[in-house]
Request: fold
Amino acid sequence: MLEIQSIRKTFNPGTVNEVRALQGVDLVIEEGSFVIVLGMNGSGKSTLLNAVAGSFFVDAGQIRVAGKNVTKWPEHRRAKLIGRVFQNPFSGTAPSMSIAENFALATHRGRPRGLGWALSRGLMDPLRDRIAGLKMGLENRLDNAIGSLSGGQRQALTLLMASWLKPDLLLLDEHTAALDPKSAEQVIALTNEVITRDKLTTLMVTHSMPQAVSLGDRIIMMHGGKILHDLQGPEKKRLRPEDLIERFNAIRAREQLDESAADMLRKNYI
Amino acid sequence: MEITQIKSDQSLIIRLVGRLDASWSETVRNEFSAAVRSGEHHITLEMAEVDYISSAGLGTLLILYKELLAIKGDFGISTASPFVESALNLAGLSQFLIPTGEATGATKSDSNRSARSPQATYEVFTTPGPGLRLAMTGDPDILHKGAGPTRNLTFGPTSFAFGIGALGEDECEERFGEFLAVAGTAVFQPTDGANRPDFVVRTGDFLPRGCLAVGLIGEGEFPLLARFEATAESRTVGLSELATTALELSGAESVAITAIVETAGLVGTALRQSPARNPKDARLEFPQIRDWLAFSNERVFRDATALLAGVVAREGSSLQPLLRPIGPGLFGHFHAAAFPYRPVQKGRIALEPSVTALFENNTVHAVLHLLNDDRGFTGAGESEFLRGALWIAPIEESEPSPFTTSEADATSSHSACNGSGEARTARLSIPNPKSAIV
Reply:
């Protein structure tokens, strides 16, 4: 469960580059809910995810994950509760380490490391099974450096790593945006499978309307650092991609309605 | 496969060379759709050099045949290779696809006259008839004052109305939005949070019923039909030019227009909230106006088909409170419902079936109040069209100030709608029957 209470974040306050990225966001995500976050560039989606992950501290408000107030926790401490996949396939993995070594690190995330063998039989067997389940032929390449894999393969592995410990919260930040359509489709199918199977509480940012419509049980639309629409239940079910596009157009049209347009409308509208 | 288009005076010839199989049938179909969109309704296929056709190809030919049949166009195969000919014969399709020679060919036109405006050509058909009576209802200052008492109305096959209104029996005022009703159909843009327009199409005795908070309502026929097509040089023709031509063709000072048009883009706005809700001032002030009107600074619904209802008048019309400038010395008020593209049949077409057909695939994109955004360089300009049909009825000016009669009318039409009146009285009633026949 994730509880966000009126969080605010302003970057470069008091300068010409001041950006009010989050302007009072309130959001409660029930345990096991899969929430899609939509919004135009600069609407605050990624800032919201980064605020939750702890990439920076918020200026005001409170963030609770699984009942714990993590507002003042540093990023690495929150990692115990939160799994995360980034847009860039090169983030989120250690490229010069092997697949197995990356997983060994992932399985110890937030736990004491100790001096035991990292690549124990207890890890390698289930790991081989899970990776075989990807049907990417990677189960025989566990000793290969992860940097030698394609973007799609890396994102699939990162997703497995991020969800391995069944985190209290999974954050996906446009994790298929940099992939070719076929790989994106595979990673999305895997995402849905993992989240549904483990009932993971998930926040996923995407720009793909078809993904937003077909995945998850709730859609949050952000604009100007605020939540503009919160669609769930039957309303989410009857959504079509074109309805979402229409909502985006409406946001844009609203911004374009400036004073000169207002004058024109006053003159011409009845 | 090679696909070549040869344009002749009356028709388009498409020559196919190669194999018409599953991998090519989609491309051929798209080529056809593009041709129909550009206004070609008479298409001939040359298949002398098509050495193979599969069922995918035959299926496509049948779809094309049906598409053109639906808009009373022509589709036929002029030449066929022995293989194609035998395939068509064996499949029993040759009777449809190979023309016998007499019926098809040139468009036969029974137009009474033709006309020309700077950017379009017209074929004009006249039907002697009684014309259209028209009256205003409601207070044009609705956005500031909120909606007053409204009239429950039933829209029959000869009704014509547009303004701010809603469909339904009760709680109309919760949904008041851009509204239009013509030829037994009515469609409006609800403002209760639903963003899909709702509509009723006359089906047997099931007629559209609703309320109009402000607008024009009328009853009657359209004696003139003008089929227009933008000239090849200009490609599109604007609303003001069509409106001017409609006035000139009718010779009247003011006309009502119903139109079905293929659009090159609409410029318009739509209410976002019902004026009956949150009554307060300054709704059209900036920035509150953003909550009240949806407007985008550009043409929308390009390449769609739209249904228009409106009036246009020279200066000094008694309808003036509901009119706004749409061009030099020209005043009008138009509403448009935008539909997914469908070609409009050529020649003389009947109003009601043509309008009803628009609703066939159950989708209306939006209902808009059309505007002339005359802000020069930054403005979006006016709505523009490729071709279509204008039904024109001259209006004899209605009595001034019909608002005063609305109270009494509200009572009488309410009783009719509650079922105590006969079917006849439930039909649209005109506030003042003296107001004009043409």
